Amino acid sequence: MTLSGQRIVIIGGSSGMGLAAARAAAAAGASVTIASSNHERLRSALAELPEACDGAVVNTRDEADVAALFDRVGELDHLVYTAGDSVRPQPLADVPLDTARDLLEVRFWGAVAAVKHAAPRIRPGGSVVLTSGTVAVRPAPGTALAAGAAAATEGLTRGLAAELAPIRVNAVRAGAFRTPLWDLVPEQGREQLFAALADKTLTKSIGEADQAAAAHLYLMGNSYVTGTVLTVDGGSLLA
């Protein structure tokens, strides 16, 4: 697959699946702009990418900040949105409503703001790729808010595919992946958790970020795919 000469913006591109997508897109010939809320992560990520790539610090909770990013970027071919805060499982009864609302700010409303301001600048043949998770269809106790955010993203994907056509809009539904979102878990416990999650898949493995990136690139490159939520989970939904 080639993305030669195309301009791609990846929000959440400084780590994990977003950074892997940036590396893969750059290797396919694209000019990539990554956006992150964290300056240090952004600087570290840019050091791993070709010199043609650039980056910006963006607060996805602030619509004006998101709008300014796309004013600076100008025309683009693809938007990839992988940004999301870590969400600690907890019963809904223990979560204040303001905190519950806040949990959707980056994962859902940030995506809404990004698409709103990117769409008028996307060139013919371009696309948007959002990111959800298997929690949308197989939640566990304590994950109701994460499930709600992921399911909302999938509904948004289908709605935007209809509304923005012929711009294509798709999403990657990710299973358990080895990314920095798990760094809050102590290393020994993290490896035990990964082993347990791997055992719940058909492939008996944990996902790696470059495997998610391959899905993001497929959805950017296949001009006949829109309104699709592509599950990349090692078969965990069937296990």
Q: What's this entry about, in short?
A:
With 239 residues, the protein is of the alpha/beta class.
Q: Would you give an account of this structure?
A:
The chain is α/β, with parallel strands linked by helices. Helix content is 42%, strand content 20%. It is built from 8 helices and 9 strands. A 7-stranded parallel sheet has the order 3-2-1-4-5-6-9, with helices on both faces. A two-stranded parallel ribbon has the order 7-8. Strand 7, helix 7 and strand 8 form a beta-alpha-beta unit. Helix 3 packs parallel to helix 5 and helix 5 packs parallel to helix 6. It is globular. The two termini are 31 Å apart. The mean pLDDT is 95.
Tell me the layout of helices and strands:
Blueprint: E1 7-11, H1 16-27, E2 31-36, H2 39-48, E3 54-57, H3 63-73, E4 76-81, H4 97-102, H5 105-118, E5 122-133, H6 144-164, E6 168-174, E7 177-178, H7 187-199, E8 207-208, H8 209-221, E9 229-232
Parallel strand pairs: 1-2, 1-4, 2-3, 4-5, 5-6, 6-9, 7-8
Helix pairs in contact: 1-8, 3-5, 5-6
